[in-house]
Amino acid sequence: MMTHHEKRFRVLITDPISQSCIDILKENNIDVTYKPKLALEEILKEIPEYEILIVRSGTKVTKEVLNVANKLMLVGRAGTGVDNVDMDAATRRGVVVMKQCTRWQHNQCCRTHMCHANGYGQVKQNKQITNKITLDIPQACNSMKLNKWERNLFMGTEIHGKTLAIVGLGRVGRAVAFRMQAFGMKTVGYDPIITAETAKSFGVQLFPLEELWPKADFITLHVPLDAETKHLINDDVFAKCRRGVRIINVARGGIVNEEALLNALVNGNCAGAALDVFAEEPPRNVALIQHIKVICTPHLGANTTEAQLEVSKQIAKQIVEFVNHKALIGVVNGYGVFSVNFWSFSK
After folding, report:
1. Catalytic residue chosen out of the listed positions 77, 171, 252, 291
2. Is position 252 annotated as part of the catalytic site?
3. Active site residue 56
4. Nearest to 303 by CA among 121, 80, 120
5. Active site residue 5
6. Considering Cα of 246, then 262, then 121, then 321, what sign does the dihedral take?
7. What is the DSSP letter of 242?
8. Which part of the chain is the D-isomer specific 2-hydroxyacid dehydrogenase catalytic domain (predicted)?
9. Contact, 295 vs 138, CB < 8 A?
């Protein structure tokens, strides 16, 4: 019987990815098939022959896909969000779902407020657009391009002394806190996992969500999209917030109820929003995108050459460690699949 050291694993990659990922896998005797932007029908035909699937955010790893993936052991997500993977179906079938993250990054983030490749892009963008929505910079720029001088129309607000509510205090949330404290912002937050003592160690005062909303001048979101966080920001939340609160979302579309946000912008409960992600991409809510108090970008948080190169290399290295029985880095459904003897690589 062939051992795991002798077996050549087959990887299917269905989203665009850096060549570095392919090179690392091949250097470690892993067969790679690179077919970016496959339609669902094509994925259903291809996937039964592969042990490993690598995706970014484009491919939807649905129950339908998983049900025909008879050899599949691992879904590797080149990035951090796994909302495009049916986690329940994967776990039931004993398929490990792994997102990009390394030991070094995890340790460094906890000690120095550093982030993984995608996370650093989100932190940088968060800082930039927070500053921009306080001064209406994009709107003022567009006004000048129309040969207008409307200085009095674009009255900004200071962030020094304002309260920033951070929902989700993982690596990205902590890094955001660290940077925005440098601007003199008071940072409060919510996280269902960490303790108040841990939050205090990086300058954040922890509150339950119901107590958090009324304290915030700005709300920034750094949570995954799942059943608990879908439409986390909704009409009820805006009713509890200070009038004129500002919303920043560079995490995942769907965390904010876009109709509720638009209503809050129209009635003045929300003074501005900065959005990099949307419930549907490209977004269909034209009224929200075109609102004068909305800054929007087409999911650019980690869209840099350096970030995408690093993400590609990291997920490849994690997969190599997985198939060589060295480590399980970035596994997000480990508890559910531990009852399945996936180390035997049998189905």
Report:
1. 252
2. yes
3. no
4. 121
5. no
6. positive
7. P
8. 11-99
9. yes
